[in-house]
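User: I'll paste a sequence; please echo it back and then give the predicted structure.

Assistant: Echoing your sequence first, then the prediction.
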Amino acid sequence: RILLAEDNPVNQHVAKIMLHKLGLTADVATNGLEALARLATTPYDLVFMDVQMPEMDGLVATRIIRSQPEAVLNPRVPIVA
């Protein structure tokens, strides 16, 4: 399972097309808060994390994922920024 944390609709669309061509699908979060909420309920195998997003940026979200392992199901999930 892949999580795409990206606020730009065009970038979301392009990333989903590229992943689809590889036979993959992704859930989308539009900011860091949504990404954390999804990671708390779903065991993702990979996160594509935008750095600049509203509400909470990808850097802060990544810090929380790594420093508060109880906040997510898989605190060691690979994160690609």
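The mean pLDDT is 97. The longest strand covers residues 2-5.
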